[in-house]
Model the fold of this input.
Amino acid sequence: MTQESTIVIDPVTRIEGHSKITLHLNDDGRVEEARFHVTQFRGFEKLCEGRPFYEMPSLMARICGICPVSHLIASAKACDSLLAVRIPPTADKLRRIFGLAQVTQSHALSLFHLSSPDLLMGMDADPAKSNIFGVAEKNPELAMDGIKLRQFGQKIIERLGGKRIHPAWIVPGGVSEPLTEANRDAILATIPEALAIAERTLEWFKGTMERFREEISTFGNFPTMFMGIVKKDNGLTFYDGKLRIVDASGHVVADDLDPTQYYDYIGEKVEPWSYLKSSYYKPKGFPDGVYRVGPLARLNVADRCGTPRADQELAEFHELQRTAVLSSFHYHHARLVEILYCIERLEQLLNDPEILSKHVRALARPNAREGVGAAEAPRGTLFHHYKIDDQGLIRWVNLIIATGQNNLAMNRSVLQVAKHYVHGKKLTPGMLNRVEAVIRCYDPCLSCSTHAMGQMALQVELISPEGKVLDTIARH
Amino acid sequence: MPRVLILAYGNPLRSDDGVACRAVDQLRQSLPDSEFQCFHQLGPELAEVITHFERVIFLDAAFPTEGMKPGDIRIQPLLANTNATDQSRFSHVVTPQTVVTLASSLYHVDVKADLITVTGQTFDHGDRLSDAVAAALPNLVAKVEQLARTPITNS
Done:
Protein backbone atom coordinates (compact mmCIF):
# COMPACT_ATOMS: atom_id res chain seq x y z
CA MET A 1 0.00 0.00 0.00
CA THR A 2 1.48 3.32 -0.99
CA GLN A 3 0.73 6.38 0.97
CA GLU A 4 1.22 9.82 -0.47
CA SER A 5 -0.48 11.86 2.26
CA THR A 6 1.87 13.73 4.56
CA ILE A 7 1.13 14.13 8.22
CA VAL A 8 2.58 17.44 9.37
CA ILE A 9 3.20 17.70 13.08
CA ASP A 10 3.86 21.36 13.71
CA PRO A 11 5.32 22.39 17.11
CA VAL A 12 3.31 25.63 16.89
CA THR A 13 0.19 23.60 17.60
CA ARG A 14 1.60 22.15 20.80
CA ILE A 15 -0.49 24.52 22.81
CA GLU A 16 -3.59 24.87 20.77
CA GLY A 17 -2.86 21.35 19.71
CA HIS A 18 -4.97 18.63 18.21
CA SER A 19 -5.00 14.93 17.80
CA LYS A 20 -5.67 13.18 14.57
CA ILE A 21 -6.70 9.72 13.61
CA THR A 22 -5.99 8.31 10.20
CA LEU A 23 -7.78 5.24 8.95
CA HIS A 24 -6.09 3.46 6.08
CA LEU A 25 -8.22 1.33 3.75
CA ASN A 26 -6.99 -1.72 1.88
CA ASP A 27 -7.83 -2.59 -1.70
CA ASP A 28 -11.11 -4.15 -0.58
CA GLY A 29 -12.22 -0.92 1.03
CA ARG A 30 -11.86 -2.29 4.56
CA VAL A 31 -9.93 -0.58 7.34
CA GLU A 32 -6.48 -2.08 7.47
CA GLU A 33 -4.63 0.29 9.78
CA ALA A 34 -5.49 3.05 12.21
CA ARG A 35 -3.23 5.54 13.91
CA PHE A 36 -3.84 7.84 16.83
CA HIS A 37 -1.57 10.82 16.31
CA VAL A 38 -0.59 13.03 19.21
CA THR A 39 0.79 16.26 17.96
CA GLN A 40 1.88 18.09 21.08
CA PHE A 41 5.55 18.37 21.94
CA ARG A 42 7.19 16.83 24.99
CA GLY A 43 9.55 19.13 26.75
CA PHE A 44 9.74 18.96 30.52
CA GLU A 45 12.81 16.74 30.58
CA LYS A 46 14.84 19.43 28.84
CA LEU A 47 13.28 22.28 30.79
CA CYS A 48 14.55 20.83 34.08
CA GLU A 49 18.21 20.43 33.14
CA GLY A 50 20.37 22.69 35.28
CA ARG A 51 17.73 23.13 38.01
CA PRO A 52 18.47 22.16 41.65
CA PHE A 53 17.08 18.71 42.29
CA TYR A 54 14.92 19.90 45.19
CA GLU A 55 12.90 22.03 42.77
CA MET A 56 11.84 18.98 40.82
CA PRO A 57 8.62 18.09 42.66
CA SER A 58 7.26 21.61 42.19
CA LEU A 59 8.39 21.73 38.58
CA MET A 60 7.05 18.30 37.75
CA ALA A 61 3.69 19.04 39.32
CA ARG A 62 3.18 21.62 36.59
CA ILE A 63 3.17 18.93 33.94
CA CYS A 64 -0.53 18.51 34.59
CA GLY A 65 -3.40 20.29 36.25
CA ILE A 66 -5.45 17.13 36.83
CA CYS A 67 -2.88 14.76 38.27
CA PRO A 68 -0.11 17.00 39.63
CA VAL A 69 -0.02 15.02 42.86
CA SER A 70 1.09 11.88 41.02
CA HIS A 71 4.03 13.77 39.58
CA LEU A 72 4.74 15.28 42.99
CA ILE A 73 4.85 11.81 44.54
CA ALA A 74 6.97 10.15 41.85
CA SER A 75 9.32 13.12 41.75
CA ALA A 76 9.67 13.28 45.53
CA LYS A 77 10.40 9.56 45.61
CA ALA A 78 13.13 10.05 43.03
CA CYS A 79 14.54 12.85 45.19
CA ASP A 80 14.30 10.59 48.28
CA SER A 81 16.58 8.21 46.36
CA LEU A 82 19.02 11.02 45.62
CA LEU A 83 19.09 11.83 49.33
CA ALA A 84 19.24 8.12 50.16
CA VAL A 85 16.71 8.58 52.97
CA ARG A 86 13.81 6.57 54.31
CA ILE A 87 11.00 9.00 55.00
CA PRO A 88 9.21 8.94 58.38
CA PRO A 89 6.24 6.53 58.58
CA THR A 90 3.77 9.37 59.08
CA ALA A 91 5.06 11.12 55.99
CA ASP A 92 4.59 7.89 54.06
CA LYS A 93 0.96 7.72 55.18
CA LEU A 94 0.33 11.40 54.46
CA ARG A 95 1.71 11.06 50.95
CA ARG A 96 -0.61 8.10 50.46
CA ILE A 97 -3.58 10.16 51.63
CA PHE A 98 -2.62 12.86 49.18
CA GLY A 99 -2.38 10.37 46.33
CA LEU A 100 -5.68 8.69 47.16
CA ALA A 101 -7.49 12.01 47.19
CA GLN A 102 -6.07 12.82 43.82
CA VAL A 103 -7.03 9.51 42.26
CA THR A 104 -10.58 10.05 43.53
CA GLN A 105 -10.94 13.48 41.96
CA SER A 106 -9.20 12.51 38.75
CA HIS A 107 -11.33 9.40 38.24
CA ALA A 108 -14.42 11.46 39.05
CA LEU A 109 -13.53 13.93 36.31
CA SER A 110 -12.99 11.15 33.81
CA LEU A 111 -16.21 9.35 34.52
CA PHE A 112 -18.67 12.08 35.36
CA HIS A 113 -17.46 14.79 33.03
CA LEU A 114 -15.91 13.03 30.07
CA SER A 115 -17.53 9.59 29.80
CA SER A 116 -20.93 9.85 31.47
CA PRO A 117 -22.51 11.55 28.43
CA ASP A 118 -21.87 8.40 26.38
CA LEU A 119 -22.92 6.07 29.16
CA LEU A 120 -26.09 7.99 29.93
CA MET A 121 -27.23 8.92 26.44
CA GLY A 122 -25.64 6.25 24.28
CA MET A 123 -22.97 6.32 21.61
CA ASP A 124 -25.32 7.48 18.88
CA ALA A 125 -26.71 10.44 20.77
CA ASP A 126 -26.77 13.83 19.13
CA PRO A 127 -23.26 15.25 19.67
CA ALA A 128 -24.85 18.58 20.56
CA LYS A 129 -26.47 16.90 23.57
CA SER A 130 -23.80 14.33 24.38
CA ASN A 131 -21.87 16.48 26.82
CA ILE A 132 -21.90 17.60 30.41
CA PHE A 133 -24.85 19.92 29.71
CA GLY A 134 -26.84 16.96 28.43
CA VAL A 135 -26.00 15.02 31.59
CA ALA A 136 -27.06 18.00 33.71
CA GLU A 137 -30.38 18.03 31.89
CA LYS A 138 -31.05 14.28 31.85
CA ASN A 139 -29.63 13.28 35.23
CA PRO A 140 -28.74 16.35 37.32
CA GLU A 141 -28.13 14.20 40.39
CA LEU A 142 -25.40 12.33 38.53
CA ALA A 143 -23.78 15.58 37.45
CA MET A 144 -23.91 17.00 40.97
CA ASP A 145 -22.54 13.77 42.44
CA GLY A 146 -19.58 14.09 40.11
CA ILE A 147 -18.93 17.63 41.23
CA LYS A 148 -19.20 16.63 44.90
CA LEU A 149 -16.75 13.78 44.45
CA ARG A 150 -14.28 16.07 42.70
CA GLN A 151 -14.63 18.59 45.51
CA PHE A 152 -14.16 15.84 48.10
CA GLY A 153 -10.77 14.92 46.65
CA GLN A 154 -9.69 18.48 45.98
CA LYS A 155 -10.58 19.70 49.46
CA ILE A 156 -8.41 17.01 50.99
CA ILE A 157 -5.55 18.13 48.76
CA GLU A 158 -6.19 21.74 49.71
CA ARG A 159 -6.33 20.98 53.44
CA LEU A 160 -3.06 19.07 53.35
CA GLY A 161 -1.18 20.97 50.69
CA GLY A 162 -2.48 24.49 51.02
CA LYS A 163 -3.99 24.65 47.55
CA ARG A 164 -5.94 22.37 45.20
CA ILE A 165 -3.59 22.30 42.26
CA HIS A 166 0.20 22.22 42.37
CA PRO A 167 0.48 22.11 46.14
CA ALA A 168 4.11 22.28 47.23
CA TRP A 169 3.56 20.17 50.32
CA ILE A 170 5.26 16.96 49.16
CA VAL A 171 9.01 17.55 49.34
CA PRO A 172 12.19 15.47 49.16
CA GLY A 173 12.42 13.57 52.43
CA GLY A 174 8.72 13.64 53.30
CA VAL A 175 6.14 16.40 53.52
CA SER A 176 6.59 19.99 54.67
CA GLU A 177 3.87 20.16 57.35
CA PRO A 178 2.12 17.63 59.60
CA LEU A 179 -1.61 17.06 59.51
CA THR A 180 -3.57 19.01 62.10
CA GLU A 181 -6.29 17.43 64.19
CA ALA A 182 -8.82 19.92 62.87
CA ASN A 183 -8.04 19.03 59.27
CA ARG A 184 -8.08 15.33 60.04
CA ASP A 185 -11.53 15.58 61.62
CA ALA A 186 -12.87 17.82 58.85
CA ILE A 187 -11.82 15.30 56.21
CA LEU A 188 -13.26 12.35 58.12
CA ALA A 189 -16.59 14.15 58.30
CA THR A 190 -16.81 14.13 54.50
CA ILE A 191 -16.16 10.40 54.10
CA PRO A 192 -19.76 9.13 54.51
CA GLU A 193 -21.19 11.26 51.72
CA ALA A 194 -18.30 10.40 49.40
CA LEU A 195 -18.81 6.70 50.07
CA ALA A 196 -22.52 7.00 49.38
CA ILE A 197 -21.84 8.72 46.05
CA ALA A 198 -19.30 6.06 45.06
CA GLU A 199 -21.72 3.25 45.92
CA ARG A 200 -24.70 4.64 44.05
CA THR A 201 -22.61 5.54 41.02
CA LEU A 202 -21.27 1.99 40.87
CA GLU A 203 -24.81 0.63 40.98
CA TRP A 204 -25.91 3.06 38.28
CA PHE A 205 -22.98 2.09 36.08
CA LYS A 206 -23.50 -1.65 36.48
CA GLY A 207 -27.10 -1.09 35.45
CA THR A 208 -26.01 0.51 32.18
CA MET A 209 -23.61 -2.20 31.05
CA GLU A 210 -26.27 -4.33 29.39
CA ARG A 211 -26.84 -1.54 26.83
CA PHE A 212 -23.22 -1.64 25.76
CA ARG A 213 -22.67 -5.31 24.95
CA GLU A 214 -21.46 -4.52 21.44
CA GLU A 215 -19.10 -1.82 22.68
CA ILE A 216 -17.77 -4.09 25.42
CA SER A 217 -16.91 -6.69 22.81
CA THR A 218 -15.25 -4.22 20.41
CA PHE A 219 -13.65 -1.55 22.59
CA GLY A 220 -10.06 -2.61 23.01
CA ASN A 221 -11.12 -6.20 23.59
CA PHE A 222 -7.94 -8.06 22.70
CA PRO A 223 -5.15 -9.84 24.53
CA THR A 224 -2.37 -7.79 26.05
CA MET A 225 -0.31 -7.95 29.17
CA PHE A 226 -1.22 -5.75 32.12
CA MET A 227 1.20 -4.04 34.47
CA GLY A 228 0.89 -2.30 37.82
CA ILE A 229 2.52 -1.70 41.17
CA VAL A 230 1.14 -3.91 43.95
CA LYS A 231 1.92 -4.43 47.62
CA LYS A 232 3.94 -7.42 48.83
CA ASP A 233 0.69 -9.34 49.32
CA ASN A 234 -0.40 -8.41 45.76
CA GLY A 235 -2.87 -5.89 47.14
CA LEU A 236 -3.94 -2.76 45.28
CA THR A 237 -1.80 0.29 45.97
CA PHE A 238 -1.00 3.64 44.43
CA TYR A 239 2.09 4.65 46.37
CA ASP A 240 4.74 1.99 46.62
CA GLY A 241 5.45 -1.69 46.04
CA LYS A 242 6.67 -4.14 43.43
CA LEU A 243 5.86 -4.27 39.75
CA ARG A 244 3.73 -7.14 38.55
CA ILE A 245 2.83 -8.15 35.03
CA VAL A 246 0.11 -10.60 34.03
CA ASP A 247 -0.85 -11.85 30.60
CA ALA A 248 -4.26 -11.96 28.97
CA SER A 249 -5.01 -15.28 30.63
CA GLY A 250 -4.34 -13.76 34.01
CA HIS A 251 -1.12 -15.72 34.47
CA VAL A 252 1.81 -13.95 36.06
CA VAL A 253 4.46 -13.04 33.48
CA ALA A 254 6.77 -11.25 35.89
CA ASP A 255 6.58 -10.51 39.58
CA ASP A 256 8.63 -8.82 42.28
CA LEU A 257 10.15 -6.44 39.75
CA ASP A 258 11.87 -3.41 41.23
CA PRO A 259 10.16 -0.32 39.77
CA THR A 260 13.38 1.66 40.08
CA GLN A 261 14.99 -0.70 37.55
CA TYR A 262 12.23 -0.07 35.00
CA TYR A 263 14.74 0.35 32.18
CA ASP A 264 15.61 -3.34 32.38
CA TYR A 265 12.16 -4.35 31.19
CA ILE A 266 10.42 -1.32 29.70
CA GLY A 267 11.50 -0.04 26.32
CA GLU A 268 10.27 3.04 24.46
CA LYS A 269 9.84 3.38 20.74
CA VAL A 270 9.50 6.58 18.77
CA GLU A 271 7.04 6.64 15.90
CA PRO A 272 7.44 9.22 13.15
CA TRP A 273 3.74 10.07 13.13
CA SER A 274 3.26 11.01 16.79
CA TYR A 275 5.00 12.83 19.64
CA LEU A 276 3.70 10.17 21.99
CA LYS A 277 6.26 7.37 22.39
CA SER A 278 5.13 3.77 22.78
CA SER A 279 6.29 1.65 25.70
CA TYR A 280 6.67 -2.11 25.50
CA TYR A 281 7.82 -5.02 27.67
CA LYS A 282 11.39 -5.58 26.54
CA PRO A 283 11.63 -9.38 26.91
CA LYS A 284 8.86 -9.73 24.34
CA GLY A 285 10.13 -6.98 22.04
CA PHE A 286 8.16 -4.45 20.02
CA PRO A 287 5.25 -4.68 19.31
CA ASP A 288 4.54 -8.07 20.95
CA GLY A 289 5.47 -6.54 24.30
CA VAL A 290 2.30 -4.44 24.33
CA TYR A 291 0.84 -3.98 27.79
CA ARG A 292 -1.77 -1.79 29.43
CA VAL A 293 -1.61 0.22 32.64
CA GLY A 294 -4.18 2.09 34.69
CA PRO A 295 -7.37 1.03 36.47
CA LEU A 296 -8.11 -2.01 34.30
CA ALA A 297 -4.53 -3.22 34.59
CA ARG A 298 -4.34 -2.59 38.32
CA LEU A 299 -7.44 -4.64 39.02
CA ASN A 300 -6.10 -7.41 36.78
CA VAL A 301 -2.75 -7.61 38.57
CA ALA A 302 -4.06 -7.18 42.11
CA ASP A 303 -5.42 -10.09 44.11
CA ARG A 304 -7.21 -7.88 46.61
CA CYS A 305 -7.93 -4.26 47.48
CA GLY A 306 -7.67 -4.58 51.25
CA THR A 307 -10.80 -2.60 52.11
CA PRO A 308 -14.16 -4.32 52.68
CA ARG A 309 -16.48 -2.91 50.04
CA ALA A 310 -13.81 -2.55 47.39
CA ASP A 311 -12.82 -6.18 47.92
CA GLN A 312 -16.41 -7.23 47.29
CA GLU A 313 -16.52 -5.19 44.12
CA LEU A 314 -13.13 -6.50 42.99
CA ALA A 315 -14.35 -10.07 43.36
CA GLU A 316 -17.37 -9.20 41.23
CA PHE A 317 -15.12 -7.45 38.71
CA HIS A 318 -12.91 -10.53 38.36
CA GLU A 319 -16.04 -12.51 37.51
CA LEU A 320 -16.53 -10.49 34.31
CA GLN A 321 -14.16 -12.86 32.54
CA ARG A 322 -12.46 -16.11 33.48
CA THR A 323 -9.23 -14.71 32.09
CA ALA A 324 -7.92 -11.26 32.82
CA VAL A 325 -10.63 -8.70 32.10
CA LEU A 326 -9.67 -7.64 28.59
CA SER A 327 -12.16 -5.13 27.21
CA SER A 328 -11.01 -1.55 27.65
CA PHE A 329 -14.66 -0.60 28.17
CA HIS A 330 -14.18 -2.01 31.65
CA TYR A 331 -11.74 0.78 32.50
CA HIS A 332 -14.87 2.69 33.55
CA HIS A 333 -15.93 -0.05 35.94
CA ALA A 334 -12.40 -0.36 37.30
CA ARG A 335 -12.26 3.37 37.90
CA LEU A 336 -15.37 3.20 40.06
CA VAL A 337 -14.02 0.30 42.09
CA GLU A 338 -10.84 2.29 42.63
CA ILE A 339 -12.80 5.33 43.80
CA LEU A 340 -14.51 3.14 46.38
CA TYR A 341 -11.15 1.72 47.49
CA CYS A 342 -9.60 5.18 47.73
CA ILE A 343 -12.32 6.50 50.01
CA GLU A 344 -12.26 3.44 52.27
CA ARG A 345 -8.47 3.51 52.44
CA LEU A 346 -8.50 7.25 53.20
CA GLU A 347 -10.68 6.56 56.22
CA GLN A 348 -8.32 3.84 57.44
CA LEU A 349 -5.24 6.06 57.12
CA LEU A 350 -6.88 9.08 58.74
CA ASN A 351 -7.78 6.92 61.74
CA ASP A 352 -4.20 5.68 62.09
CA PRO A 353 -2.96 6.61 65.62
CA GLU A 354 0.30 8.04 64.21
CA ILE A 355 -1.27 10.21 61.52
CA LEU A 356 -0.94 13.43 63.56
CA SER A 357 2.77 12.93 64.37
CA LYS A 358 4.94 16.03 63.88
CA HIS A 359 7.86 13.99 62.52
CA VAL A 360 7.20 14.21 58.81
CA ARG A 361 10.50 14.87 57.08
CA ALA A 362 13.95 13.29 56.83
CA LEU A 363 16.68 15.82 56.15
CA ALA A 364 19.84 15.06 54.21
CA ARG A 365 22.08 16.25 51.40
CA PRO A 366 22.37 14.29 48.15
CA ASN A 367 24.07 10.98 48.68
CA ALA A 368 23.48 9.49 45.24
CA ARG A 369 23.83 10.81 41.70
CA GLU A 370 20.86 8.94 40.30
CA GLY A 371 17.34 8.40 41.62
CA VAL A 372 14.14 6.79 40.34
CA GLY A 373 10.66 7.28 41.75
CA ALA A 374 7.66 5.21 40.69
CA ALA A 375 4.01 5.45 41.67
CA GLU A 376 0.57 4.65 40.31
CA ALA A 377 -1.02 7.74 38.83
CA PRO A 378 -4.75 7.65 38.05
CA ARG A 379 -3.95 6.58 34.49
CA GLY A 380 -1.25 4.08 35.33
CA THR A 381 2.32 3.56 36.38
CA LEU A 382 4.49 6.64 36.39
CA PHE A 383 8.30 6.74 36.47
CA HIS A 384 10.53 9.72 37.20
CA HIS A 385 14.27 9.16 36.68
CA TYR A 386 16.84 11.85 37.49
CA LYS A 387 20.61 12.22 37.34
CA ILE A 388 22.38 15.05 39.13
CA ASP A 389 25.90 16.42 39.27
CA ASP A 390 27.99 17.00 42.40
CA GLN A 391 26.30 20.40 42.87
CA GLY A 392 22.89 18.75 43.04
CA LEU A 393 21.85 20.17 39.68
CA ILE A 394 19.74 18.10 37.33
CA ARG A 395 21.72 16.81 34.37
CA TRP A 396 19.31 14.31 32.88
CA VAL A 397 15.64 13.45 33.25
CA ASN A 398 13.53 10.67 31.85
CA LEU A 399 9.80 10.41 32.44
CA ILE A 400 7.66 7.47 31.50
CA ILE A 401 4.05 8.48 31.69
CA ALA A 402 1.06 6.19 31.92
CA THR A 403 -0.59 7.40 28.75
CA GLY A 404 2.51 6.61 26.71
CA GLN A 405 2.46 3.08 28.06
CA ASN A 406 -1.09 2.71 26.76
CA ASN A 407 -0.23 4.14 23.36
CA LEU A 408 0.10 0.81 21.55
CA ALA A 409 -3.13 -0.43 23.07
CA MET A 410 -4.95 2.80 22.23
CA ASN A 411 -3.89 2.52 18.62
CA ARG A 412 -5.05 -1.09 18.45
CA SER A 413 -8.30 -0.11 20.10
CA VAL A 414 -8.96 2.55 17.48
CA LEU A 415 -8.24 -0.01 14.76
CA GLN A 416 -10.62 -2.52 16.33
CA VAL A 417 -13.42 0.02 16.55
CA ALA A 418 -12.78 1.26 13.04
CA LYS A 419 -12.82 -2.24 11.58
CA HIS A 420 -16.11 -2.97 13.28
CA TYR A 421 -17.94 0.30 12.74
CA VAL A 422 -16.51 1.82 9.54
CA HIS A 423 -18.12 0.47 6.39
CA GLY A 424 -17.59 1.78 2.90
CA LYS A 425 -16.04 5.11 2.26
CA LYS A 426 -18.17 7.29 4.50
CA LEU A 427 -17.54 8.23 8.11
CA THR A 428 -20.57 8.65 10.38
CA PRO A 429 -20.98 10.63 13.59
CA GLY A 430 -21.75 7.42 15.48
CA MET A 431 -18.46 5.93 14.34
CA LEU A 432 -16.61 9.08 15.38
CA ASN A 433 -18.28 8.91 18.79
CA ARG A 434 -17.10 5.36 19.26
CA VAL A 435 -13.54 6.14 18.20
CA GLU A 436 -13.50 8.96 20.75
CA ALA A 437 -15.18 6.75 23.33
CA VAL A 438 -12.65 3.96 23.08
CA ILE A 439 -9.78 6.37 23.60
CA ARG A 440 -11.69 7.95 26.46
CA CYS A 441 -11.78 4.56 28.19
CA TYR A 442 -8.06 5.01 28.76
CA ASP A 443 -8.61 8.54 30.10
CA PRO A 444 -5.47 9.70 28.31
CA CYS A 445 -3.61 12.68 29.62
CA LEU A 446 -1.89 13.95 26.54
CA SER A 447 -0.75 17.03 28.42
CA CYS A 448 1.11 14.77 30.86
CA SER A 449 2.58 12.50 28.27
CA THR A 450 3.66 15.18 25.89
CA HIS A 451 4.15 17.99 28.35
CA ALA A 452 2.06 20.52 26.61
CA MET A 453 -1.40 21.85 27.18
CA GLY A 454 -4.21 22.96 25.03
CA GLN A 455 -7.63 22.22 23.78
CA MET A 456 -8.02 18.91 22.01
CA ALA A 457 -9.91 18.76 18.79
CA LEU A 458 -10.23 15.53 16.90
CA GLN A 459 -9.91 14.94 13.22
CA VAL A 460 -10.52 11.58 11.59
CA GLU A 461 -9.32 10.92 8.05
CA LEU A 462 -10.30 7.96 5.90
CA ILE A 463 -7.45 7.15 3.50
CA SER A 464 -7.58 4.95 0.39
CA PRO A 465 -4.88 2.42 -0.49
CA GLU A 466 -3.52 5.04 -2.89
CA GLY A 467 -3.15 7.54 -0.06
CA LYS A 468 -6.07 9.71 -1.10
CA VAL A 469 -8.17 11.20 1.68
CA LEU A 470 -11.68 9.91 1.02
CA ASP A 471 -13.47 11.54 3.89
CA THR A 472 -12.71 13.71 6.87
CA ILE A 473 -14.78 14.34 9.94
CA ALA A 474 -13.65 16.68 12.65
CA ARG A 475 -14.53 18.20 15.97
CA HIS A 476 -12.87 21.57 16.68
CA MET B 1 -19.01 46.32 46.49
CA PRO B 2 -20.40 42.96 45.43
CA ARG B 3 -18.90 39.72 46.63
CA VAL B 4 -16.32 38.93 43.98
CA LEU B 5 -14.37 35.83 43.03
CA ILE B 6 -11.43 36.17 40.66
CA LEU B 7 -10.46 32.91 38.94
CA ALA B 8 -7.06 33.09 37.29
CA TYR B 9 -5.79 30.17 35.28
CA GLY B 10 -2.84 29.21 33.15
CA ASN B 11 0.52 27.48 33.29
CA PRO B 12 3.20 29.72 34.84
CA LEU B 13 5.90 27.63 33.16
CA ARG B 14 4.56 28.49 29.73
CA SER B 15 5.67 32.11 29.58
CA ASP B 16 2.67 34.36 28.84
CA ASP B 17 0.25 31.68 29.91
CA GLY B 18 1.16 32.58 33.48
CA VAL B 19 0.03 36.22 33.20
CA ALA B 20 -3.29 35.67 34.99
CA CYS B 21 -1.73 34.34 38.19
CA ARG B 22 0.83 37.14 38.11
CA ALA B 23 -2.00 39.64 37.95
CA VAL B 24 -3.55 38.02 41.01
CA ASP B 25 -0.34 38.64 42.98
CA GLN B 26 -0.96 42.38 42.51
CA LEU B 27 -4.72 42.27 42.83
CA ARG B 28 -4.62 40.72 46.29
CA GLN B 29 -3.29 44.08 47.51
CA SER B 30 -5.78 46.31 45.76
CA LEU B 31 -8.88 44.13 46.19
CA PRO B 32 -8.56 42.81 49.74
CA ASP B 33 -12.28 41.96 49.98
CA SER B 34 -12.27 39.77 46.89
CA GLU B 35 -11.48 36.09 46.84
CA PHE B 36 -8.87 34.70 44.52
CA GLN B 37 -8.14 31.29 43.12
CA CYS B 38 -5.32 30.37 40.74
CA PHE B 39 -5.48 27.20 38.71
CA HIS B 40 -3.52 25.47 36.03
CA GLN B 41 -6.88 24.85 34.36
CA LEU B 42 -10.58 25.07 35.17
CA GLY B 43 -12.68 22.16 36.36
CA PRO B 44 -16.45 21.47 36.38
CA GLU B 45 -16.58 21.62 40.18
CA LEU B 46 -16.12 25.38 39.91
CA ALA B 47 -19.76 25.52 38.88
CA GLU B 48 -20.74 25.00 42.50
CA VAL B 49 -18.02 27.31 43.81
CA ILE B 50 -19.12 30.34 41.81
CA THR B 51 -22.70 30.10 43.05
CA HIS B 52 -21.50 31.54 46.35
CA PHE B 53 -20.49 34.85 44.73
CA GLU B 54 -22.27 37.74 43.09
CA ARG B 55 -19.61 38.39 40.49
CA VAL B 56 -16.96 36.14 38.98
CA ILE B 57 -14.07 37.35 36.87
CA PHE B 58 -12.15 34.74 34.86
CA LEU B 59 -8.60 35.74 33.93
CA ASP B 60 -6.58 34.07 31.22
CA ALA B 61 -4.09 34.56 28.42
CA ALA B 62 -5.30 34.26 24.85
CA PHE B 63 -3.65 33.38 21.56
CA PRO B 64 -3.13 36.06 18.93
CA THR B 65 -6.04 36.18 16.54
CA GLU B 66 -7.28 38.44 13.81
CA GLY B 67 -7.46 41.92 15.29
CA MET B 68 -5.85 41.02 18.62
CA LYS B 69 -2.13 41.49 18.96
CA PRO B 70 0.10 40.61 21.94
CA GLY B 71 -0.76 42.78 24.91
CA ASP B 72 -4.32 43.53 23.83
CA ILE B 73 -6.92 43.08 26.54
CA ARG B 74 -10.43 41.90 25.94
CA ILE B 75 -13.43 41.75 28.27
CA GLN B 76 -16.26 39.35 27.41
CA PRO B 77 -19.46 39.04 29.43
CA LEU B 78 -20.42 35.40 29.99
CA LEU B 79 -23.99 34.22 29.98
CA ALA B 80 -25.32 30.76 30.70
CA ASN B 81 -25.97 29.06 27.39
CA THR B 82 -27.46 25.59 27.51
CA ASN B 83 -27.25 25.44 23.73
CA ALA B 84 -23.48 25.64 23.88
CA THR B 85 -21.60 22.47 23.00
CA ASP B 86 -18.95 21.36 25.39
CA GLN B 87 -15.85 20.38 23.45
CA SER B 88 -13.93 19.01 26.39
CA ARG B 89 -14.49 15.41 25.37
CA PHE B 90 -10.87 14.43 25.13
CA SER B 91 -8.64 16.48 27.34
CA HIS B 92 -8.81 18.24 30.60
CA VAL B 93 -10.35 21.44 29.29
CA VAL B 94 -13.29 23.26 30.82
CA THR B 95 -14.16 26.74 29.62
CA PRO B 96 -15.51 29.62 31.67
CA GLN B 97 -18.68 29.35 29.59
CA THR B 98 -19.10 25.75 30.74
CA VAL B 99 -18.65 26.70 34.37
CA VAL B 100 -21.22 29.50 34.17
CA THR B 101 -23.72 27.35 32.26
CA LEU B 102 -23.39 24.45 34.69
CA ALA B 103 -23.93 26.82 37.62
CA SER B 104 -27.17 27.92 36.01
CA SER B 105 -28.46 24.52 34.92
CA LEU B 106 -27.45 22.49 37.98
CA TYR B 107 -27.76 25.00 40.80
CA HIS B 108 -30.16 27.52 39.21
CA VAL B 109 -27.84 30.41 40.02
CA ASP B 110 -26.99 33.00 37.38
CA VAL B 111 -23.76 34.61 38.44
CA LYS B 112 -22.58 37.87 36.88
CA ALA B 113 -19.51 36.62 35.05
CA ASP B 114 -16.89 38.06 32.73
CA LEU B 115 -13.81 36.72 31.03
CA ILE B 116 -10.82 39.04 30.78
CA THR B 117 -8.00 37.91 28.52
CA VAL B 118 -4.70 39.40 27.50
CA THR B 119 -3.31 38.30 24.17
CA GLY B 120 0.00 36.53 24.60
CA GLN B 121 3.09 36.59 22.45
CA THR B 122 4.89 33.44 23.50
CA PHE B 123 3.74 30.25 25.15
CA ASP B 124 7.08 28.46 25.03
CA HIS B 125 8.61 26.88 28.11
CA GLY B 126 9.70 29.64 30.45
CA ASP B 127 8.76 31.49 33.61
CA ARG B 128 8.94 35.05 32.28
CA LEU B 129 6.38 37.18 30.50
CA SER B 130 7.11 38.57 27.06
CA ASP B 131 7.77 42.30 26.84
CA ALA B 132 4.36 42.94 25.30
CA VAL B 133 2.44 41.11 28.00
CA ALA B 134 4.58 42.46 30.82
CA ALA B 135 3.81 45.97 29.55
CA ALA B 136 0.10 45.15 29.48
CA LEU B 137 0.01 43.78 33.04
CA PRO B 138 -0.70 47.13 34.78
CA ASN B 139 -3.57 47.79 32.41
CA LEU B 140 -4.90 44.28 32.99
CA VAL B 141 -4.81 44.80 36.74
CA ALA B 142 -6.57 48.16 36.38
CA LYS B 143 -9.36 46.67 34.29
CA VAL B 144 -9.94 43.87 36.78
CA GLU B 145 -10.05 46.36 39.63
CA GLN B 146 -12.55 48.51 37.76
CA LEU B 147 -14.79 45.56 36.94
CA ALA B 148 -14.62 44.14 40.46
CA ARG B 149 -15.73 47.49 41.91
CA THR B 150 -18.59 47.99 39.45
CA PRO B 151 -21.99 47.63 41.11
CA ILE B 152 -24.16 44.89 39.71
CA THR B 153 -27.37 46.09 38.12
CA ASN B 154 -30.34 43.86 37.39
CA SER B 155 -30.47 44.59 33.67
